[in-house]
Write a structure and sequence with these properties.
Length: 97
């Protein structure tokens, strides 16, 4: 895998990098940018699910769209270790201007 600067990224067998979008308010986006993701106290799926999936090699637990667990019916990826998340960019929602 490479990046735009031409430098080669270290590749780990079986590990991947994903670029994902996290929809939230600008206030929350700035908090995440400055302080990192802070897990909720209970987690959407509960701590046992994250641990079990992680023991089988997964970094996230997946909630499919329209399954009744996410209020807006969107797909959710629940992260095991939020310290491995890196904010690349904050994009302003033009509809909120």
């Amino acid at each position: 895998m490479g990046n735009c600067s031409g430098k080669q990224k270290k590749v780990y067998p079986g590990r991947r990098t994903y670029i994902m979008y996290h929809g939230t308010t600008m206030e929350n986006a700035l908090k995440i940018y400055h302080n990192g993701f802070v897990p909720s106290s209970g987690g959407m799926l509960g701590p046992g699910v994250y641990r079990t999936w992680h023991q089988h090699g997964y970094d996230t637990a997946w909630v499919p769209p329209n399954c009744g667990m996410a209020p807006r019916g969107l797909e959710e990826d629940c992260v095991y270790d939020p310290n491995r998340i890196k904010v690349l960019e904050i994009i302003l929602n033009r509809r909120s201007c």
